[in-house]
Amino acid sequence: MSLLQKFSKIVDKTINESTVRSMKKQYIDEMNKTPEKKIVELSRSPKGRPKLLGKYDEEVVDYVKKLRATGAIVNKQILIACATGILEHKCRSMLQENGGHISLHRSWAESFLRRIGFVKRKGTKAARKVPANFDELRVEFLGSVSKIITENNIPEELVMNFDQTNISMIPCGNWRMEEEGSKQVEITGLEDKRQITALLTCTMAGNLLPPQLLYQGKTDQCHPPVKFPKGWDIHHSENHWSNEQTMLRFIDTILLPYIHEQGDRLNLPLKQPALAIFDVYAAHRVESFINKLQKAGILIKYVPGGCTGELQPLDLSGNSQIKEVVKSCFTAWYAQQVGTQLKAGKTVKNVEINLKLSNIKPIHANWIIQAIQKVKDQKGVIRNGWVRSGMLTVDK
User: Fold this and answer.
1) Which of 336, 337, 329, 316 is nearest to 384 (CA)?
2) N or C: which end of the chain has fewer CB within 10 A?
3) Residue 191 above 60 pLDDT?
C-alpha cells in the first residue's frame, strides 16, 4: 500500500493497485532478461491497433508522399493499387486473394490517408435537390410512360433509355486528398481531356446497346488505336461532350440499327413505334434531334428535370456498375505496374507509373470494352434500374 501511495504522490494522480502490480511485473521481467543492465525506464507498448501492412506500411507511406510531392494524384484507388503491387512483390501470401488475411478496401485506404496527415477536401459542386413536387412529377411521368407503351403496343425491347456518363481515364471522384494544412498543389492528370463521354442505351428488356464513345479532339486522330467491338460508335467532339452533331449521328449509328434488328427478330409491323426516355440535357432538346427521332417513329418522353437520380434507369443501375469495373481494371493494372518495377530491382521510392494520355488512352479503352461487356451479360442489372424507377413493376 505504501508503494501505491508513493506512486500516486509522484504523479499527483490516484493510481490503481492493478496498475502498480503490472508495472512491478514488467520491471521484474525486464530485469530477468538483462540482469546486468540497470532499468531506469520501462518500455511502453505501442498505442493503437497494429498496422495492417505490418513492416511494409512505411514503404507505402513513402510512395504516397513521393506522389504528393511531385504533384501526382493521391486518392484511395491509387493507394489500394500501389499497396497491392508492393505486397504482391514483397509477400503476396498476405493478400486475401492469395489466401492471406489482408483485404485492401476503400475504408482502409481512407483511414490510412488520414493517419499519415491527408484530409478530404470536398468539391464545390452543389448537392442535387429533388423538386418539392417530386411525388406529383413521378406519378405523372410513370402514368405517361405506361400510357404510351400500352396505346402503341411497344415491346420491352423497344422501350429505351439513353444517358451520357463521363468516364475518367484515372479514377478520381469528387474528393481530393491533400496534405493537411498544405497550400493548393496542382495535380497532374485531372484535366478534362482525361475523360471521355460514354452515351449508353439500355432497354426495359434488359438489353445494353453498343455505346457511343466521345473523345476530345477535332479528328479521328484523337481516337485510341484499339479495335472496338462491332456496332460501337467511336467519335469525338472538341470537349468530348455530346452536341447536336453527335446526337444526330447517334440515331444513325446506334438507335436505328438496333430498332431495325429487333423489328426483324420480333417480326414487328414495319411502322412499329419505339419509345426513347431521356433527360433534359441541352443536346437532347435540339429541334433537329427531336425531329429526326419523330421521323424515325421514335416517341419521346423526358425525365422530369432534377429527377434523374430517382427516375432514370441508367442512373439507378448500369452507369455506376460500368464505372466500378473500370476502376477495378485500373487498380489491377496499376498494382501490376508497381509489382513489375519492383521485380526489376527498383525501390518503392523510384517506382514511376506512366499516366500520360498517350499511354493510358488505349489501355483505358480496353477497360471500357471489358466493363460494358460484363454489364451487358447481366440483364438483371439493367432491368433493376427500370424496376427501381417504377416503370417496370415486376422483374420478370
Assistant:
1) 316
2) N
3) no
